[in-house]
Design a protein that fits this description.
553 residues; alpha+beta; 3-stranded antiparallel sheet; 13 strands; 14% strand
């Protein structure tokens, strides 16, 4: 029998927890809160009822109060730490005296959640679930302590009632809620900073005390002079207008805080990889984007590392990957420019502009990786990738896919007689003519040198490819104006068609078949189309276009 000691079990548990991402850790914590809340509501609070005999308020009024007070919040910043103080304790105090406890639970969770969705304009599944479970336990603790002390049934303002309410707020609003909230935040972020936690706890205690006092005032008004509740309309209106007016200044303050925090991270003594998640989550939250990437460039020439974060709830996991060969090559060329751009941005506090500029650089990098710089059409890499996608979709589309390999006839003579500059202009003119011949589903690409490729996707019939190839040959035979001269070229086209997904080859094999057909077209006299015969596994001549026959005659 093997005996496992407690320290070993703790070490194993820590190792497993360390492998979880921030959202996963928060989800585990939320489930634990949910179990605690379910235990409280199903055991000691199963048969709980309202202990006061004064008039009750309807459930919809409690939901509306929870919703409105959650929308009325103030953000306070101390030593660069931002805390949000809302008025959600007010409906809790009202509910303890004027609403059935089970109704209070439902009204509070629903109202606060609706207000959160209104502010954020989106659903954050993990965070919203965590907040809901936290609210369930928060209301359970408040009701449990309030009923344990016992208020005066007929007088909410009696000393005993005030004592019961104060004990409930201390237990739930001073102890449980802020401690659980800060523990959950630390677990999700994977770090614990006592200074931040202490400041947040202090603000939450102050907010609870203030709002609890306002709640007592609201209960007094509702039980004595209900119409006095209208006196709260002007301050509520002022707060809402103030929040709208202060929105832009708050956004500027948030941007400055983001720049400060980013600079602090980049200049930290810790490795950038260790704080990449914090930086990327800050970027997604600041700019409201779903995806952010950080490319770490070594000081000396070497491979860069890409950190990627998806999701803007501040808890998204971060993955690492290496750049592709094409991206790395272009990045090596841009190394000096990008590094200088970041350095200047940090010195002048303009990281947001630097990020936008780097996005432009990244788009340029992607364009260079997948498009031919001379002809501005797709290159071989993008062509192969698109062919692979079309072959994968063949089983569902059930429409033939064709690949053409086009080689220019007489291009070498143009280079020899007129020079490479004229040859480049001819290639650009050929690419422009090929673009005209394709549909939105198709793709024209420069494979290399004077060789081009054409992908025909979703054809209606096998023979459509040969018809398009004839049209391409006729189009390319038209003279190309170069300054005051007219240059004439031809084209030999090889075609490979796939009709059945079961017979679909790899993209490279399909291109090889089209290449074989093109070389046979060259040997048969050029300016013609040859289609690869899938049954014979060999190219066969399809036909010579009428224009080519007339030229030969």
């Amino acid at each position: 029998m093997t005996v496992v000691h407690a320290p070993v079990l703790i070490a194993r548990a820590r190792a497993r927890i360390g492998q979880l991402t921030g959202p996963q850790r928060l989800l585990v914590f939320s489930i634990a809160l949910g179990i605690i809340g379910a235990t409280l509501w199903l055991l000691p609070l199963q048969d709980v009822h309202r202990m006061t005999t004064i008039g009750a308020i309807p459930w919809w009024a409690e939901v509306a109060t929870c919703y409105v007070t959650s929308l009325l919040f103030v953000q306070v910043r101390v030593h660069r730490e931002l805390s949000t103080l809302s008025l959600t304790e007010i409906p809790v105090v009202m509910g303890l005296f004027l609403v059935d406890p089970h109704q209070l639970l439902g009204c509070y969770v629903v109202g606060v959640m609706l207000a959160s969705w209104t502010r954020q304009r989106r659903i954050r599944w993990v965070k919203d679930f965590a907040n809901a479970m936290l609210d369930v336990v928060y209301i359970a603790v408040a009701v449990l302590v309030f009923n344990a002390v016992g208020p005066m049934a007929s007088d909410p303002l009696a000393m005993r009632s005030i004592l019961a309410f104060a004990a409930a707020m201390v237990a739930s609003g001073w102890l449980f809620y802020p401690i659980a909230l800060n523990v959950g935040t630390s677990i999700a972020q994977g770090r614990l900073e006592l200074g931040e936690v202490s400041r947040a706890y202090a603000f939450q205690v102050v907010a609870t005390t203030t709002n609890a006092s306002l709640g007592i005032v609201a209960v007094m008004i509702l039980t004595t002079r209900p119409w006095f509740i209208l006196a709260l309309v002007p301050p509520v209106f002022v707060v809402l207008v103030g929040q709208i007016a202060a929105g832009e200044s708050q956004r500027r303050a948030d941007r400055n805080e983001f720049l400060y925090r980013t600079t602090e991270i980049l200049h930290s003594s810790r490795q950038v990889g260790e704080r990449a998640g914090e930086l990327l989550n800050g970027i997604t939250a600041m700019f409201g984007v779903e995806r952010a990437e950080l490319v770490v460039i070594p000081e000396v020439r070497g491979p860069a590392v890409r950190f990627t974060s998806t999701g803007n709830d501040g808890l998204a996991p971060v993955s690492t990957s290496e750049l592709t060969f094409a991206e790395q090559e272009v990045l090596n060329e841009l190394r000096t420019t990008v590094a200088g751009l970041i350095s200047v941005a940090l010195e002048n506090g303009q990281l947001a502009e630097a990020i936008r500029a780097m996005s432009v650089e990244k788009a340029e990098l992607a364009r260079r990786a997948f498009y031919d710089p001379l002809t501005q059409i797709a290159n071989r890499s993008l062509f192969l990738e698109t062919v692979a996608t079309s072959l994968d979709q063949l089983a569902t589309s059930r429409r033939p896919v064709a690949v053409m390999f086009i080689d220019l006839d007489g291009f070498k003579e143009i280079n020899d007689n007129f020079g490479h500059a004229v040859g480049d202009r001819v290639l650009s003119a050929v690419a422009a003519r090929l673009r005209v011949q394709v549909r939105k589903l198709d793709l024209a690409a420069r494979i290399g040198g004077d060789e081009f490729g054409m992908l025909l996707d979703g054809m209606r019939h096998f023979s459509d490819a040969a018809v398009v190839a004839d049209r391409i040959i006729e189009t390319l035979r038209r003279p190309i104006p170069i300054d005051d001269a007219m240059v004439t070229i031809g084209a030999s086209v090889g075609v490979a068609v796939v009709e059945d997904a079961a017979d679909a080859p790899e993209p490279e094999e399909l291109m090889r078949r089209a290449d074989m057909a093109m070389y046979l077209a060259k040997r048969q006299g050029k300016n013609r189309v040859v289609v690869f015969d899938n049954a014979a596994r060999t190219p066969v001549i399809a036909r010579v276009p009428e224009v080519a026959r007339q030229a030969a005659g």
